[in-house]
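Run folding on both entries below.
>entry_1
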Amino acid sequence: MASLRKEPGRNGFRISFYGLDKRKRSIWLGGFSKRQADTVKGHIEHLLAAKAAGVAADVHTAHWLGSIGSEIRSKLLKADLIEPTADDRGPVILGPFLEQYILNRRDVKDSTPATYRKTITALVDYFGADRRLDSITAGDAELWRIEQAANGNQRDSQRKEMEDNSVRRRTGLARQFFRHAVKRKLIAENPFDGLAAAVRGNVKRQYFVPVETVYDALEHETCPQLRAVIALSRFGGLRTPSETLELTWQDVDLTSRRLTVHAPKTEHFEDGGIRFCPIFDELYPYLLELQDIARPGIDCPMSSPVITRWRSSAQNVRTPFLNLLRRAGIKAWPKLYHNMRATRQTELLAQFPAKDVCDWLGNSQAVAMKHYAMPTDDSFQRAICGSTCGSISANQKPSGATTRNEKPPKTSGFEGSGQVVTPCPVGPAGLEPATNEL
């Protein structure tokens, strides 16, 4: 309960009360009549009760709050009786808000702020750093997205247009920033809500990487570590560089042919981003070669990384691979490592149950179908020839028969042949890679 008293020699009343933290507080109402002060006291008592119960104020008190002046409102704020609104805080400016957002996100990986920064730069360049957050409308957000699609590409000097998925990712981040502003009640609504932000599978950039192409490239490379990186991506289906560089020797069990993979991308999931993947026949010799060189447990601890190159964030594994393809006279394909991982998943889905394959490669079946699995000429030809009981091979060789530079034997069929399989157009109904479950 609150108490009301008239102070001698002063024109007004003082309302005293205890907050939820048991601290005594008071509000001075200068120039108020007894009737006016009693009305304020009643609303304060209701606000205290509502706050203790964790419910909103009733309609009468809410209406009263909307009608009071800034002086009384500031006293209620100071007494912790009401929550501040955007008007109470004053206008929020775009540039400082986004910079503060990055500083506050101490829960993300070290590389994430750099990703945020690209979208922040695009927002500030378009709207201006001193633009009020609450002045950006849904129409403004839509025009910003159109501008990103038309002129947002800063990486390729040959074209200004940005890929649709890049626009979607950037829009999603902008929506994330403004959603935070809504949660903090800095703005009433998110102007980026309703804009397309979900990343879609990009068929134009899919490429089935034939196993023969990979073996040809590896013949031109002498560095065992780069050879292993390529093999882990193409034959193990690991995300590169994140999962490949996380591997330590205690994760590699060549005896049991079992690989423990740590996925930074999914470490916030219930399983901690840890999964187990078979060491396939094609991958085995490249890991064995590295083990013979490193001698883990003898010359280096088992906790040592399998790949000791490219440990700095300033280095990357893409450039050496591009140089290798150039030396081998092989034209580079889009999304070098992603398409090798996708190729491996496509092969495995044709031979093993989808649930097992997705567990091995660390993605869901929905994601696998949307972003990884590719239609193949082999499946199409078998379908139109009436052969619907088989499946394309994962290009695996006989156990223990693979040497470092050995190519798959030439046969008349797909299995073990290294046959080049490329994405192809399909009929109107579409054609997904066959699985043993279907």
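>entry_2
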Amino acid sequence: MPILGGVKYTDRIERFQIGALGAVTGRTSYNYYGTDMLEPASVYSVASLRRQVLGNSELGILYAGKDNGAFSNHGIRADGVWRQGSFTARLYGAGSQMGDSLDHALAAVADFQGSSYSGGLTARQTAPKFDMNGIGYTSWRGQSVSAYAGPNWYSTSRFQSLSVQVNGGAEREWGYEAGVPDWNIGTTVYGRMRNLTYGDIWAGGYASRYQDTAWSRYSGLDLGLSVGTDPGKSASISGWGDFMTRTYNYNRLMLAPSGQGGVWFSFQFGDHVSLDLGNDFVAEFQESGALDFNRDVTLMFRPSLGIVFTPKMNLSVGNETVRGYDLERERPDYSYYFSTLYSWTIRPRSTLYVALNQRLAGGSNWLESTGTIAVVKLRYLFVF
């Protein structure tokens, strides 16, 4: 949607942090999964207030709203963070208004990071009619609880740090059939060597459900790892992979194995030029476990170039090429995304941004749709 204009204000007064934002967007139309949609001109508003209490603990309140001729959507959240040594506790409470609908969301998080062990517990409930989709999105509504715990080791003969964690959780989403909730349980090992090479490995089991002609349950195993070299070096490499023995394929409407992963290369040429090359993939196996590379594997290539002209002026240019497969047309499908961001720090904490994003999409030898977005933003610090 086109942004016609906006203003942002932030300030710190003793122990208070204050923020406010207002923006106006223009009327626009778009296609959503084959349906033509109309987004009316809208007014967005955000305000926040936080106060430091009890040393380094905090209390805060946040409001966000969207108003136009079609609907009004408003939400407010109050939260508190208590920090005491290695222990941190957070409480959240939120309410939403969407038209005539009112509802709430609650969450509690406890976390302990000690010298020899760590652990945490999270519980949340998002009520069925809690709705902030006008402003952002509410992707999940239900009840969930998760926890993790395990020992830590630091400064051993080979490792800078090493930890083993057992984790698990259960959740129930509103609208699913009653009964046993979805659950998962697993173990993760995190390690960082003294030369800053790092690696993680995890394994676990899970059970979930999907709806076809009726609700059905399925279970499987999740196996994965990630590795990388010291990111502070002039050249570094990192990679990751994850494999699920059984999950629901929403593109092909079936249960099958699924895998994903990627590899990234980063290069720093002096103090002014950096280059990143990334290649990710998603492999959606067939129900039998077979894999047709042409039809079942989606590839994403993401190169990016950064140039620092001066300490106050830099430019970044990026591309994302996605190679998938169109099941309806039975042929490969390509999408190309180009992005450019220029930033210039005019004075301390005052920066000019110019961004340009372009999308090209289509089949092997033709372009189906294009779209270009240009944004100019000025952040300026006023001193009174």
